[in-house]
Structure formats: C-alpha cells, structure tokens
Amino acid sequence: MRHPLSRRDVLWKCAALGALTLAPDASMADVFAWSENQQPDSRAPTPWNEIGPFYKREAPNVADLRGSGDKGLPLSVTGRVFDTRGQSIEGAKIEIWQANDAGLYDLDGYKYRASLTADRTGAYGFGSIMPGHYPARVCQHIHYLVTAPGCKALTTQLYFGTDPVFSGDPARNFTKDPLIQSVELVRPVKMTKSAAGVRADVTFEIVLERL
Amino acid sequence: MSRCSAALLALVFASACSHAAPEITTPVDTGLLRVASPVSSLLFARTQPTAVARTQDHRLRVLSLPDGKELQAIDYGDRRVVAFDLSADGASVALGDWSGLVSVWTTATGALRYERRLPKYPGVLTFSPDGKLLAMAPQGDAVQILNAATGAPVTTLGSPVGGTLTLAFSRDGRRVATGDGDTIVRIHDAATGKEVASNREFLMVPLTVVFSADSASVFAASGDKFVTIIDAATGKTLRKLDRTTQPMQALDVSPDGASIVTIFMKSEDMTQPDHVVVRAMDSWQPRLDWLPPTMPVGGGWTSDGRLLVALAASDGVQLWRLH
Predict the structure, then answer these.
(1) Is A56's CB within 8 Å of B225's CB?
(2) Which residue has the higher pLDDT, A28 or A88?
(3) Which residue, A36, B38, B176, B251, could crosslink B210 as a Cys pair with Cβ 3.0–4.6 Å?
(4) Contact A54 B182 (CB under 8 A)
C-alpha cells in the first residue's frame, strides 16, 4: 500500500535528490525545526462534545446504515481524518451512532450504529438518514468516537446547519443547544437531487491531537 | 468474594427458585413541602433532617425537615447548572455549571467555601458518605477528588475514553466506582486514585453505579438494560439480573442495606417519567412499582430510613413516600 509522504519525508527526499542542499552551518534538524514551526497545513483540533448515554461498542463495519423503507431524508456524510499537522490518518477508527427519523436510539441492536475505518488518505464516509430530534436534546446530531494510534481519542457530535433550531443562522443560534460549544460542529448541508430523489450531503472533517 | 456478598448471592439465587410473590405496596402522598420559588431539583441529606432545593429564581434553599422551614437561601446568580450534590450530613452543597465552575457552600451559614475551575463542565459531583471528599467528573476528562472541606486536591483518577458518566463512593469511603464512556466499570482506591479492579462486560455506557451497604459489591446498570452485580475486589461479575424493558438511570441502596431503588429511564424520551421500583435486596423481588405522574425533581433516602420522591408543585414539591 502506498502511503502519503509526511512533510519530513518530502524534505528527506528533496535532500536525497538534490532539490535541497544545506549550507555548512545548517543541518537537516534545523530544516525540520523550521518546517515544524511553519506548519502550513496546521489544523485546529475538532471541538470536543460529550459521549452521551447511548454509546455501544462493537458496532458493525457497515457504510450504509439505511434499511430498505426507512423513513427520513437520505443523508451522505463524508470527510477525512487528520492530525493537527494536517497529515491524514490512515486506519483511524470512526464509530458513529444516531437516532432514527423519529428521534429514537436503538438500544437493543445496532441500527444506525457503525464502526468505520479511514482509508489510506484518511477518508471515511457513510450513508444514513437525517436523524430526528431526540426529545431530551435540542438539536439533530450524530455522535462520533474517533480513535487512532498515537492520537488522543475524540468524542464529538455532528450538527446540521438546516436544523430548524438554528432558524437558518447557525452562527448566531448554535448556543440554543447548550452542548454545542463551537459552531464548527454545525456543518452546512448540500441538497442534491438524483433519480432516487433528494439527498443531503454533509462534509465533516476530523482533526485529532497527537499524544 | 466477601462473606456478605456470598450470602447475598445465595439469597438471590435461592429466591429465584422459591421466593413467594411479595405484596406490592403503593406510595403514600405525605403532603406538600412549601418552597418560596418553583423547584428545579431537590436533594435530601442522608443522615440529617435537611434538604436543599434548587429553585428557578437561581437559589439553593436549605430546608429543615419535616417542617420545610427555610434555613438559608444561597444565590448562585445566572449560572446554568449541570450538576449539584448535598453531603450526607447536609453540611455542604456543591454546584457545577456549564462553564466548568464548581462552587461549594456551607449550608449552615450560606458562606461560599471555595470554587474550582474544571477543564470541562461536570457531569457528576458526589460527596463521599462521610462528607470528607468531593469527587468531580468533568465530562470527557479525569475525575478529580478533593478534600471537601478545603478544596485541596487529594487525587485524580485515570482518564478513560469518553470520561466518567457516573460514580459512587463505597460506604466505608475507601473505594470509588466509576461508570466510564468506554463502557467499563472501574473501581479505584479513593485515597490514591489507583484502579484496583474493572468490569468490561457492558456493551453500553454504564449509567449508574452504587455500592452495596457492606462495600463488597457494586451494582451497575447501563443501556444494556440489566443490573450487574460486580465483586468490588476483583471486578468480576457475580450475577447479571434479568433484562428489563427500559434502562435504569439510577440505583440507590437504603441506609440499612435491605432495599434498593431502581429508577428507570424512558429511553425514547428522557424528559418523561418512567417506573420507580423498590426491591428487597435479599431477594431482588419488587416491593413497590410506581409510575410517577410527572417527572420527579428529586428524592432519596432520608435520615429516618424513608425513601421520598419529590414531584414539582406550583408552591413547592409534593412528597411521596415509597418506603
């Protein structure tokens, strides 16, 4: 499997191929230190959100959570998993769980629960339905637990800009749900239409902190 | 396994085969406890005739029981409360808000004793049974245990994935059980924070943990919808009780250790009430099964061994005696 090169790998390769040469008083360590300080691809960690009471381990590795005939707006969520240096994290484990269209969680089985693995570019994706409003919560949401070797585990939640709670202005109204402490977790929704009907597309990128 | 736990298990197993159906009692309406402002939540001190009501005018009202006389009114301002607890002797009350600020007051004087800033808002605040320790569980972070009198740090527990959602001290104060986001029940030394045992048999996050009266075992329940009895020394499952139709959000053992109350959660809508069941500890047979007409605002075992549940009323709380 081909791995994307890290910034340090690129610098080594440049040095090996002559694209990078060093003055007598400079070392590769100096170059690496400069490179780290520049952090052109640095990303802020994804804001944390609490895990909630309904996490269930051992969810199946399925990318399509919809069953035939399930009610609700079809939803496609895609994204990539990075570290704070902007490097994609292959093999990151993304566990998701959500309520159904009526706002109910499945406690007895694994409906609308999945455990996904990021590919070599850190990409993940799943098909689902727009979650309903769970009565004890303000906003529609999907729970995430993301883990990867060498990184701090992240629990967070994905919210939707189209949620009526936000009255079309998430930046102003996201605090209507006290659990949302960052508007970054409220993602725009792109509606698409195909022969199968209307579908909501959402991109949610995850940034983990290195340990 | 301790001798007490072995005896308990023997009784539970025996009862499953031979116990006659007990008489189910009904709750008794003991009347109105008048409070100066509508009550958001209410806690009873376990060893003293004292209660604290958190009221909608942003005050903690310290009440004597049974007369309901207001002893103190502590103004906590416009803070949005997420957790609060009253020590068993009623001497200390702790309150935590969404900003992660935890305040502890002396109820006798209403004086603020100290404040602590947590990295995240607390999901749980719990005093030890002797009132000497205060455990604070910031969501998604490590539990901190303080000297309840001074606020000085005593120890910090490990930091599980997802943090700690529920915790309980043993009655002897030596152990702390936590229900953690990674679905594990852990038992820690309360003085050092060291993990001494764990139970990994839950699939879902434990929502409530409580020690038996002899501190030898832990009762834990989760969205898995059953109660597991865990050996506090080894973490091994001693018994898994019958699956229920709803999860339990709270378990509490009576002061004499003879009864346990199980408070169910209506998982499809946690804002609505579900059944409260009082069981005999020795047989696990229900003694009372009650569906409150409205969501309780509080309750607990009182100093005289009663189990009271408070329902909000326009001018206070209606108290129902369940045991």
Answers:
(1) no
(2) A88
(3) B251
(4) no
CA distance A197 to A193: 6
In this complex, is the C-beta atom of A136 within 8 Å of any C-beta atom belonging to chain B?
Answer: yes
* Bridge partners (DSSP) listed for residue B164: B180
Residues B260 and B279 sit within 8 Å (Cβ to Cβ): yes
Which of B78, B245, B268 to mutate against chain A (most A CBs within 10 Å)?
A: B268
Q: Are the beta carbons of B41 and B83 closer than 8 angstroms?
A: no
Judged by CB atoms closer than 8 Å, whether chains meet at B181 and A48 is answered as no
Partner residue opposite A107 with nearest CB, options B183, B247, B271 = B247
Chain A residues inside the 8 Å CB shell of B139: 50
Chain B interface mutation, best of A94, A107, A211, highest count of B Cβ atoms under 10 Å: A107
For A170, the token pair is 């998430």
Look at A50 and B225 and tell me if their CB atoms are within 8 Å.
no
Range B22-27 contact pairs with CB under 8 angstroms and sequence separation of 24 or more: B22/B280, B22/B283, B22/B285, B22/B286, B22/B287, B23/B287, B24/B286, B24/B287, B24/B288, B24/B289, B25/B287, B25/B288, B26/B288, B26/B290, B27/B288, B27/B290, B27/B309, B27/B320, B27/B321, B27/B322
Cis peptide before A149 (omega within 30 of 0): no
Q: What is the mean pLDDT of each run of 10 residues along chain B (323 residues)?
A: 42 41 77 94 94 96 94 96 96 97 98 97 96 96 97 96 97 96 97 97 97 96 94 97 90 93 89 92 92 92 87 92 90
Cα dihedral: B170, B176, B180, B184 (round 10): -80
Helices of type H across chain A: 7-17, 28-38, 170-173
ipTM summary value: 0.87
Cβ-nearest to B140 among A54, A104, A155: A155
